[in-house]
Amino acid sequence: MILFPNCKINLGLHILQKRADGFHDLETVFYPLLLQDALEIITAEENIFSSSGLDIPGDTEDNLCKKAWHLLKADFPQLPAIHMHLHKQIPIGAGLGGGSADGAFTLRLLNSKYNLDLSLEKLEAYAAILGSDCPFFIRNTACFASGRGELMEPLDLDLTAYSFLLVHPGIHVNTGWAFGQIIPGRPAVPLKDIDWQDVSSWKHRLTNDFEAPVFAAYPAIGGIKEKMYKNGAIYAAMSGSGSAVIGIFPKNKLPETGWETGCRVFEMI
Ligand SMILES: C[C@](O)(CO)[C@H](O)COP(=O)(O)OP(=O)(O)OC[C@H]1O[C@@H](n2ccc(N)nc2=O)[C@H](O)[C@@H]1O
Ligand SMILES: Nc1ncnc2c1ncn2[C@@H]1O[C@H](COP(=O)(O)OP(=O)(O)OP(=O)(O)O)[C@@H](O)[C@H]1O
């Protein structure tokens, strides 16, 4: 069985307070985008994990696909050995939640392939153990998220009338480092006060708290956002803790401008 884990973008991101467990309470809107990895699982004699595409940094044991398998295996000993293959395309350390998507899609795939009969709520609870961004990928639909990112409410938001440009500058921003740069506080405009149906109003009202410290450390990332606006973006912002920048453009009107060497550019028309 093969699934295609997709990425997410954050539309607005406010860090509200640091918690006793070391995490931060935040508010954000998650929106799914069709830039995808491919994940295949087949029953095998022994457990094998293989990957192709982009190199994934770190120990294979820490791959969220493997962690997801171990998590379910502990509660469902009947799960057989599997061969998992991940073809990695979503840029890593980019604020696109690609690793989180892979982990959550592994849970979804194991649940359906081996008839574990887990509800969406149960799958979300498992996903929250894997990481703060993971639960979103269980339902994978636009939502307001709060808490660590695991408390979600559906949001009626359909951006298919627009084209998206995603530029990854090839910089890996460490999420823990980025949170450490923030002084938490109340947002000037809470996300519930945004007019979500009026994309043109977002430019002056919708903010991502990570942009100031990340742009200060990596000015090239701020430069990409500026260039998107100069080239006709209705809204442009860094996603999550960076380093990918997304631009929302009128349908089929993506700019033809060039980008710095080292940038990977994804067009979603
Ligand atoms: C920046 C976002 O991508 C926005 O969607 C997420 O908040 C990050 O989620 P994630 O990558 O799944 O993060 P996790 O793997 O859970 O945590 C990585 C590190 O980020 C910090 N972290 C993460 C989420 C959160 N709400 N508060 C935090 O302080 C912690 O230092 C943690 O050790
Ligand atoms: N399947 C996976 N794909 C990519 N990275 C993974 C995966 N499993 C674990 N990781 C680890 O997670 C880290 C970042 O993953 P990801 O691609 O999700 O970046 P991100 O979207 O910026 O998330 P984060 O905000 O956690 O950095 C990588 O450095 C890698 O070591």
From TrEMBL:
One of its GO terms (molecular function) is 4-(cytidine 5'-diphospho)-2-C-methyl-D-erythritol kinase activity. The active site is at residues 8, 133. Keywords: ATP-binding, Isoprene biosynthesis, Kinase, Nucleotide-binding, Transferase. It catalyses: 4-CDP-2-C-methyl-D-erythritol + ATP = 4-CDP-2-C-methyl-D-erythritol 2-phosphate + ADP + H(+). Catalyzes the phosphorylation of the position 2 hydroxy group of 4-diphosphocytidyl-2C-methyl-D-erythritol. Its EC number is 2.7.1.148. This is 4-diphosphocytidyl-2-C-methyl-D-erythritol kinase. ATP binds at residues 91-101. Belongs to the GHMP kinase family. IspE subfamily. Residues 201-252 form the GHMP kinase C-terminal domain. It comes from the Bacteria. Pathway: Isoprenoid biosynthesis; isopentenyl diphosphate biosynthesis via DXP pathway; isopentenyl diphosphate from 1-deoxy-D-xylulose 5-phosphate: step 3/6. Residues 63-138 form the GHMP kinase N-terminal domain. PANTHER family: 4-DIPHOSPHOCYTIDYL-2-C-METHYL-D-ERYTHRITOL KINASE, CHLOROPLASTIC (PTHR43527:SF2). GO terms for biological process: isopentenyl diphosphate biosynthetic process, methylerythritol 4-phosphate pathway; terpenoid biosynthetic process. HAMAP family: IspE.
